[in-house]
Design brief:
The complex is a heterodimer of chains A (99) and B (221).
Chain A: H1 2-21, H2 30-52, E1 54-55, E2 58-59, H3 63-76, H4 81-98
Helix pairs in contact in A: 3-4
Chain B: H1 6-21, H2 23-32, H3 37-47, H4 50-61, H5 66-77, H6 79-91, H7 95-103, H8 107-115, H9 121-153, H10 161-173, H11 180-196, H12 204-208, H13 210-218
Helix pairs in contact in B: 1-9, 2-3, 2-4, 2-9, 2-10, 3-9, 4-5, 8-9, 11-13
Classes of the chains: A mainly alpha (99), B mainly alpha (221).
C-alpha cells in the first residue's frame, strides 16, 4: 500500500516537473501530441470496464453494471459529476440488496 | 502586478469548488480499496492529479499488483507534462515557486489559464495560480471528508461504493469524447480491456490498453 502511495506520488510529480523543464518546441512533435491525447481516453475506458465488469481476472455482470447504466443515463441527461456518481452508487446498492 | 480581473477570480473559484468536491468520491473510493485515511490524504496532498489517484486505488481495490497501479496512474498523469510545457513559458518562475507551479499543473489550472487568454497574460497567470491553489485546498479537504465518511459506512458494496468508482471514471471520460473518432477509440479500448482480462494478472489489462492509444495515434488519420 505504502509503495503505491509513495511511488505514484513521486512519479506523478516528476512528470509535472519534467513538463516545466523541457523546451516548448517538443510540443511540435505531432505523433507525441496525437498519442498523448488518446492515452487518457484509452486508460479511462479500460478503467470503466475493469472496475465495473471485472472481478479479479473474470468478466462478470453484477450490481455494478446497473450502477454504470444509471451513470450513463445521468450523463445523457447532462447531470453534473457528483450527481452521476451518487445515482450510480444508489442504483448499485439497491440492486445489491435485492439479490 | 495589478489585481486579477473579477471574472478570472470567479472562474477560478467556481472550478475549484466543483472539482474539489469530487475529492469526496476519491476519499471514499480510496478507503473502500483498503487504503487508510492517512494514505488517502497523502495521495491527494502528494499525487494531486485526480484520474491518476482514482486509477491507483481502483487497480489495488480490484486485486491488481502495485506495479500495475503505479504504471496506470503514471501513464494517466503523463498529460500533465504537456500542460507544463505550455505553462512554463507563461509563468516564468524559478526555484521553490517552480516546484509549486509543477505540483498544481493539472487539467483545471491549465484549462482556466488558457481560457483567460483574451484577458491578457496577467489574467492567464492569475487563473493558473488561483485555480491550482483553490483545487488543491478543496480537493484535500474533501478527500479527508470522503475517507472519514467511507470508514464510518463499512461494507463498500452495501452503499454502492464499488459502482461509484467506475461511474467516476465514466464521468471523467465523458467530456473527452468530443468526436466520433474519440468515441470509437473509447469503445475499442473497452473491448480490448475486456478481451485481455482473462489472460493477464488483475490490473495489467488497464496498463495494456494504452497500446490502443499508441497504435491508433501512431499514424496521422
Amino acid at each position: 500500500m505504502w509503495t503505491v502511495v509513495l511511488a505514484t506520488s513521486s512519479l506523478c510529480f516528476a512528470i509535472k516537473l519534467l513538463g516545466h523543464s523541457i523546451p516548448e518546441r517538443w510540443l511540435a512533435n505531432a505523433r507525441l501530441q496525437r498519442i498523448n491525447a488518446l492515452v487518457p481516453i484509452s486508460l479511462l475506458s479500460a478503467l470503466v470496464v475493469a472496475q465495473g465488469l471485472v472481478l479479479k481476472t473474470h468478466v462478470v455482470v453484477d450490481h455494478r453494471l446497473a450502477g454504470l447504466a444509471a451513470a450513463l443515463a445521468a450523463l445523457f441527461a447532462r447531470a453534473p459529476f457528483p450527481a452521476v456518481v451518487i445515482v450510480a452508487a444508489l442504483t448499485s446498492a439497491v440492486v445489491y440488496h435485492l439479490h | 502586478m495589478a489585481p486579477p480581473p473579477r471574472t478570472t477570480v470567479r472562474d477560478a473559484l467556481s472550478v475549484s469548488l466543483t472539482v474539489g468536491a469530487y475529492g469526496v468520491a476519491f476519499g471514499a473510493a480510496s478507503v473502500a480499496a483498503g487504503f487508510s485515511v492517512l494514505q488517502s490524504c497523502l495521495f491527494s496532498l502528494l499525487t494531486f492529479t485526480g484520474a491518476s489517484q482514482f486509477a491507483a486505488v481502483g487497480v489495488v481495490g480490484s486485486g491488481g499488483a502495485a506495479f500495475s497501479a503505479v504504471a496506470a496512474a503514471t501513464m494517466l498523469g503523463s498529460r500533465n507534462a504537456l500542460y507544463g510545457i505550455q505553462m512554463a513559458p507563461l509563468l516564468r518562475v524559478r526555484g521553490l515557486r517552480r516546484l509549486g507551479a509543477a505540483q498544481i499543473t493539472i487539467d483545471e489550472s491549465t484549462g482556466v489559464a488558457l481560457s483567460q487568454a483574451p484577458r491578457g497574460t496577467d489574467a492567464m497567470r492569475a487563473g493558473f495560480w488561483l485555480t491550482g491553489a483553490g483545487v488543491y485546498l478543496f480537493w484535500n479537504i474533501f478527500t479527508l471528508l470522503g475517507a472519514l465518511g467511507a470508514r464510518a459506512l463499512g461494507d463498500p458494496a452495501s452503499w454502492g461504493l464499488d459502482a461509484a468508482v467506475p461511474a467516476a471514471f465514466l464521468g471523467l471520460l465523458w467530456p473527452r469524447l468530443e468526436t466520433t473518432f474519440l468515441r470509437v477509440v473509447a469503445a475499442l479500448s473497452m473491448a480490448f480491456a475486456l478481451l485481455v482480462t482473462p489472460w493477464l494478472p488483475a490490473g495489467l489489462p488497464i496498463v495494456a490498453t494504452a497500446l490502443v492509444a499508441f497504435v491508433v495515434g501512431w499514424r496521422p488519420r
